[in-house]
Each structure stands twice: as C-alpha cells, then as structure tokens.
Amino acid sequence: MVSSTKGRYALRVLIDIAENSHGEYIAMKDVAARQEISLKYMEKIMPVLVSHDLVESSHGKGGGYRLSHDPSEYRVGEILRLTEGDIAPVACLQTDAAECGRNAYCRTLPMWTELNRRISEYLDSVTIADLMQAPDMKQPPVTE
Amino acid sequence: MVSSTKGRYALRVLIDIAENSHGEYIAMKDVAARQEISLKYMEKIMPVLVSHDLVESSHGKGGGYRLSHDPSEYRVGEILRLTEGDIAPVACLQTDAAECGRNAYCRTLPMWTELNRRISEYLDSVTIADLMQAPDMKQPPVTE
DNA sequence: TATTCTACCTACCAAAGTGGTAGGTTAATT
DNA sequence: AATTAACCTACCACTTTGGTAGGTAGAATA
Predict the structure, then answer these.
(1) Tens digit of pLDDT for each residue in B62-96?
(2) Domain limits of chain A?
(3) N or C, where is chain B less crowded by C-beta within 10 Å?
(4) Which of B36, B114, B123 sits opposite A115 (nearest CB)?
C-alpha cells in the first residue's frame, strides 16, 4: 500500500483548508465534521504538517490552522512522504532499508526502481491546487 | 506497500524456474537455496501458482515445479494480483473495498484512480521474460 | 481574572497483516 | 519398501494500522 489513512487524511485536510479557510485560521472541529474523520485521529496528524511548515497553527478561540503557502506549492508526493514516512512500493527501496546483498544479481530490482520512479513522478506532478474543487463537483454535506 | 514478500518471492521463484529448469521439473529445495528464501515459506506460496496454472508440479524424486507457459506470457501485474490479492495503492480502490459514500465529492479519488491505472499499466507491461538474466548479470552464488 | 475554545501531548489498545516455523501427510519415483 | 518432494494445517511473534481517552498549554473574549 502506497498510502494509508494517515497520508490520505492529511491530503484531504489540506484540501479542505485550502477550499474553506480563506487565509483565516480554521478549526479542526469543522474540518473533521466535513471530512468525516475522527477529530482525535486528525490531531495526531497535524503536528507533522506544522513542524514541516505546511500549515501554521493558532491556539484559542478563533484559532486553528491555515496554509503556509499557496495551494499550487504543495506536491502530493511531498505530503505523502512526510506523513507516511515513505512511499516506496516495496520494502527494499525504502530509504531506511538495509542493503539487500542480492542487489548485484537481483532480477527484479530494476523493475521496482522504475515503478518507484513512475509513482514518485506522478505524485510529484499533482498539487493541492489541482485537487481543489472542480466546477462540476459537489461540496460534501455538512454532517453535524 | 504495493508488494509484500509474498508477491516478490513468487516473482523471484518464477524467474529462477524460468532460468534454471529447462522444461524439466525443478525442486524447491534448490530454488530456496539460490534465492535464499525459507523453503517452508515458499511452500505456502507455490500452491496458489499451481491452482492458477502458472506452474505444474510433480511429487516424489525428480519432481518439483516447471512453468506451464513461455516466460513471455507471464505478466508481473498478473502474478502480483494472484499472490498479493490486490495491488491497489490505496484501500478504497481495492476490489473488495466497501463503497466509500464520499466518492461523489472526493477530491482525491480521481488521482488515486489514475495512479492505480499507471501502476497496473506498467506492471502489466513487464513479463518474466523481460526479467530473466541480462547478459551483464551475474548468477547468484549457490549458497548451500 | 475567569472562562472558553483550540491546539497539542502522552498513553493505551484492538484488530489485522506480515513473515515466518513446525510437523505431519500424500504422491511419485527408484 | 524407501526415499524424495509437494502439500496441508496449525501456530506464533512482531509490526502496522487506526484509532480512543484524558489531560495540558496557550490564546482570545467576557
């Protein structure tokens, strides 16, 4: 699996902030309701985005999160790498992977490397701006 | 992770059979030694390949496995789908996935769908024949 | 100053998946 | 009959996933 809920939720939250906060801070309570994601679970994902300066936070009333940059500057691959740790399709290509020892004569390594390259290339070609509300898309219902 | 050891081992075993058995049955003991894979673990993977007619087996002395078809007829995507169950990069695209309910307004679904398409397209474009020993490749050492 | 709202931090946890091991049974060959 | 090798079933330790619970810290407002 390239992406677990962690990375996917992070993406959806960023898109939600991009669409609904207009430069203002937006409370996670609202995002969680719209995205139907557990608030508590989201709270575990957000600090990662803060520490890498993807979003800025403010405590207290009227606080919440807002984007640090323009939506067009957020590459999906980058977001997934931060939240998932790695997006390599196989264990032996992960950045923390131990040397296999069989690399010199591994028949499949070149294929995995090429697959990895194609996945990264595609995910890095898509930005948050690309994923924002298309004209023909409905807004999600606000379920309280 | 698109592929766990199950799928990767299946691939390596099929390539090993393609390279080393020449139409003859080949014992898993030998493949396991060359590929440095636990024989017992391999034994759990092989029956899947038999039941889908990728390989044929024979019991007893001089028995083992051999390919049912020409190496060029084995697509990597097909092998991974059999052994992994699914190669979708995200849970909501798996064949057994429950309807999300948010699909109509999910901003990320089209991207995941396209990523899934690209992964499948690439993996289905590679065959076992493509992965067999290149001229500049060493044979793995036979570790007893 | 007290209250309220919100981010943030820590600990815990159930379920599923991963990557095996162990031991025995069946079938084919010598 | 003995040997060899596939095959079947059960078990298991470890990690990841996807959370929940409860409390703390900081900022705004009344």
Answers:
(1) 999 999 999 999 999 999 999 999 999 999 899 88
(2) 5-87+127-132
(3) C
(4) B123
